[in-house]
Amino acid sequence: MKDKKPFYITTTLPYVNANPHIGFALEIIRADAIARFKRLTGHDVFFNTGTDEHGSKILEKAEELGKKPQEYVDEISENYRSLTKELNISEHNFIRTTDENHIKSAQEFWKKCKEAGYIEKKKYNGLYCVGCEMFVKENDLNDDGTCPDHPNKKPEMVEEENYFFKLSNFEKELSDYYEKNPTFIIPESRLNEMKAMVKGGLEDFSISRLKEKLLWGVPVPDDDEQVMYVWFDALVNYISTLGYPFDPTQGKPDEENNFKKFWIEGETVQVCGKDNTQHQALRWQAMLASVGIPFTNHVLVNGFINSGGKKMSKSLGNVIDPIDIIEEYGVDALRYYVLRELHPHEDSDFTIEKFREAYNANLANGVGNLTNRIMKLAEDHLDSPVDISEQKKFFPDFIEKFDKYDYSGAIGSLWLGIGMIDEIIQKEEPFKVIKEDVERGKEMIVKLVKHLAEVAYHLQPFLPETAEKMFKAIEDNKKPEEPLFKRLD
């Protein structure tokens, strides 16, 4: 176990201008499944998430509610922290971009980037989208002049002196990395988008605003008139959470230097939505290169969740609240749905009707019914619990899928296995054999219990509570007192 490479995984940090929604739940559940698998296979794992808390949208929202920005972000951030508990997210670090240590880290990153010659100050005139928290190009807007991602408000013309990051200096370095690492961005279609963007030419971009126009942000070092763009400081969280920059004067031994252990020497993975690909896989990578830090190993890109074929919005009344799903159906039901039923990388539709259909077919009538049938046979006919020590290991093809971050394929193969066990029961009919040949019947039931244990072991990254209940039933040699998933009417 000791020789396993340290493993680092992070979600993006959701912006706290609204309460948590199903999109963030999807992202963190998927990251959690990977983190759990890595721990189960002997890796030392650092799992990062948290909240993004600076910027003009936060300031506007706080003022709208008659609150101070810090008061507002404290409240909403706590809702996100609570959601990680409701979703049964495994051990993780929760960072906030208003944390003092993060602010210092972002400022130190800025200094190093500027000292290396990749930040310059110049005047700029352009369209600024408050929703995107960045300048946008006119040819990227809708025909009516609105931003495609924020059509309710037109970008405003802004002229001011800001700091710029010299992204254009990194065209070749990024292009070479994309070509040499075909699994850097998963899926390949998103990698191709970034290749095309680099090939089309990269422009330097603004990374600060005047403090008089944006009061809620991280101060730029050595310039009292400027604050950092919200996303510039937010991206630094991926390494500030590890203690960057490591200070050797603190007297910490190397094994306690999380930045060195997980980012420099470990495998690094970022999970994000498709609208964030450019920030995660292009701009952040160039920022890393500017201060001599290695690129991320993999960026896993999720699609959006729609409802009834339409983008979720409060005005349409089709927003799915993850807490409502958990309270009615249980956390593992939600985890199952986003891990198996929704497409891993493209847009997917989430409706309660589809959710309930999948719940009944694959949870209540699937793994739940299978567990009841097998453990009822074991309880009635076996004198003692079955030894399942040999079953507590992952199959090679399952490991291979997870190593390629194909968690969707891994959980899909698991449900194929569940179906195969059902077929064995139907074909061999141990419930009949036991009446005619007790010893042979017992042998068949023991094999079925072992198969069930294999299912439980492979379920751990996905449905941890369900796996635990299945192991408890096997260890007690009894059918669960309550169904794992009650059938819905």
Beta-strand content: 5-15%
Low-confidence stretches: none
Helix run count: 18
First CA to last CA: what distance?
Answer: 47 Å
Oligomer: single chain
- Please identify, by name, the CATH architecture of the largest domain: 3-Layer(aba) Sandwich
Instruction: Summarize the main sheet.
Output: 6 strands, parallel
Helix content: 40-55%
- Report the average pLDDT across residues: 92
- Cα Rg: 25 Å
Strand segment count = 15
| Cross-sheet strand order for the largest sheet | 3-2-1-11-12-7
**What shape does the CA trace take?**
elongated
Which properties best describe this structure?
single chain; 489 residues; alpha/beta; Rossmann fold; Isoleucyl-tRNA Synthetase, Domain 1; 48% helix
Explain how this protein is built:
Strand 11 (267-273), helix 10 (277-290) and strand 12 (298-302) form a beta-alpha-beta unit. The protein contains 18 helices and 15 strands. The protein folds into 2 domains: 7-302, Rossmann fold (3-Layer(aba) Sandwich); 351-476, Orthogonal Bundle (Isoleucyl-tRNA Synthetase, Domain 1), CATH 1.10.730.10. Helix content is 48%, strand content 14%. Helix 11 packs across helix 12, helix 13 (352-381) crosses helix 15 (407-428) and helix 13 runs antiparallel to helix 17 (438-459). It starts with 6 loop residues before the first strand and ends in a 13-residue tail after the last helix. The chain is elongated. The protein is α/β, with parallel strands linked by helices.
What's the layout of helices and strands?
Blueprint: E1 7-10, H1 22-40, E2 45-51, H2 56-64, H3 69-86, E3 93-96, H4 100-115, E4 119-129, E5 134-136, E6 156-165, H5 171-180, E7 185-186, H6 188-199, E8 205-206, E9 208-210, E10 226-228, H7 230-235, H8 237-240, H9 258-264, E11 267-273, H10 277-290, E12 298-302, E13 305-307, E14 310-311, H11 322-329, H12 331-341, E15 348-349, H13 352-381, H14 396-403, H15 407-428, H16 430-436, H17 438-459, H18 464-476
Parallel strand pairs: 1-2, 1-11, 2-3, 7-12, 11-12, 13-15
Antiparallel strand pairs: 4-5, 4-6, 6-8, 9-10, 13-14
